[in-house]
Design a protein that fits this description.
homodimer, alpha+beta, D-amino Acid Aminotransferase, Chain A, domain 2, 9-stranded mixed sheet, 6-stranded antiparallel sheet, 7 helices, about 25% helix
Chain lengths: ~290, ~290
């Protein structure tokens, strides 16, 4: 396996960053997780836009290299991968040991890939089964502390949430996604996913602003709008999700993943989720995004 | 210069971590900044205890290696450094690309050093002048999101705060520390420092719980108690600091650094700050902590 580091293809074992790189020192880096289907990165333009937006938010608007798509393509080619997971990171690079960032940035750019099952209408999901989710005590970092629309290497908030799942493991029940609320108790998102639910024939998902605007989330909302399906974004509490008729999580690798249980309570899938899954897979097949 | 990485002394330019290291990927790492005076790390036991506490909070209680003090000493020796800055990081190591951490941890341990001026009663401060601090819009990450007592590589909250200082720079006025409030507006701490002020003969500093319990902060509180000086920890707003008779910041490298201005308003130093500085320097001289 080869990765792309700082402009060069290198063997995976040699893919390193310096300990003075701010990406290591402070998690001072933007990233995107993408998925390639048949050699093509799905929704690349949207990922690129969000990556640029994160870098802008982090005060390094010029950090994303112009040839990033090429670097990704080279990495996929070098590993002979068509169906793959792709992770792109852009750090603020090596700077002297001061917290205040310098204006001039020499970013470190890393592209990592690994094989994933084929997607599309005949594809298979990357997940083992429907999601079992658990609401946790850990609250989402408010946007006033770190802007919610920035996708960064500061991921301890999600890790603290996932660590809580260790404690609820019992009798073979092991939740696989933690659901975060904001400090006021409003439902926000999973640690690596957005959440949707269907109630009385309307599709609901929490409003962005305090959560990461997921790209799969955005596509699902567009699919629903195309079908003139009733959609509402708003503020919800955990009971709204628990009492829903159907619920699912979205992210780039999972696509749409039905939620089987919330805090041990059955929710499950249904016709709306199935329809949206089918429409999403068609988009994947048609490379339409 | 040589650094200590993963159990080995290596040339600074070869001091790297793998891109799959969780320290890089997620900022999933604990760290301490220490200061060596005359070849001895000041307050090592306190730093070690806090590092272990951070690792415990991050769900990797056994991650700190038993020989960490030795690794630090070897690094100082290898670079022939007696008066130095020492940064120790312990990451959760390389793990497969899942957010949920594995129970078994093979940590990556990094020791970085650089020369600092001699401290103690005849020493010189590492800072250029008294601090100019600015309160910023960025709020401190609440403890409900990431525990405040964990000192980690997730440092974007402080970086966002420091980035705001770019905007207030004018007519030669460039604040050098950003002051964070919590989401409710209570004064908390600087991005790399704790804050103290003296008002009507009493020393004040915000209560821990929502802020990092600084080791210099702790020592200063002990020094004041030893002198039977009136001390109060509590909740304060920015005006309390602006209206104070004296104010200063503390951290391991700065020690006690007087605050010249808050949001452009003069505060300045005075007899209490000077006394505490003198007592602190005596402790450094006596290796007493």
């Amino acid at each position: 396996m080869q990765y792309h580091v700082d402009g060069e293809l290198v063997a995976r074992e040699d893919a390193t960053v310096h300990v003075e790189d701010r990406g290591f020192r402070y998690g001072d880096a933007a990233f995107e997780t993408c998925r390639a289907y048949g050699g093509e990165v799905f929704a690349w333009d949207r990922h690129l836009r969000r990556l640029e937006n994160t870098c802008e938010t982090l005060g390094m608007p010029e950090a994303v290299p112009a040839d990033l798509a090429l670097r990704v393509a080279e990495t996929l080619d070098a590993n002979d991968l068509a169906d793959a997971y792709v992770r792109v990171s852009v750090t603020r690079g090596v700077q002297p040991g001061k917290l205040t960032p310098r204006e001039e940035v020499d970013p470190t750019v890393v592209v990592q890939v690994k094989p994933l099952p084929r997607g599309g209408t005949d594809g298979e999901p990357v997940w083992d089964g429907h999601a079992t989710v658990q609401t946790v005590k850990t609250r989402r970092v408010p946007s006033a502390a770190v802007p919610a629309d920035a996708k960064t290497h500061n991921y301890l908030n999600g890790i603290m949430a996932r660590l809580e799942l260790r404690r609820v493991a019992n009798e073979g029940y092991q939740p696989d996604e933690a659901l975060l609320r904001d400090v006021d108790g409003n439902l926000q998102e999973g640690t690596t996913s957005n959440v949707f639910f269907v109630d009385d024939g309307t599709l609901h998902t929490p409003t962005t602003g305090e959560l990461l605007p997921g790209i799969t989330r955005e596509l699902v909302l567009e699919l629903a709008a195309d079908e003139s399906f009733p959609v509402e974004t708003g503020r919800y509490d955990v009971d709204d999700l628990r009492d829903a008729d159907e619920a699912f999580l979205t992210n780039t690798t999972w696509e749409l993943r039905p939620i089987e249980t919330v805090d041990g309570l059955q929710v499950g899938t249904g016709p709306v989720t199935a329809l949206l899954q089918r429409l999403y897979r068609k988009r994947v097949e048609a490379r339409c995004y």
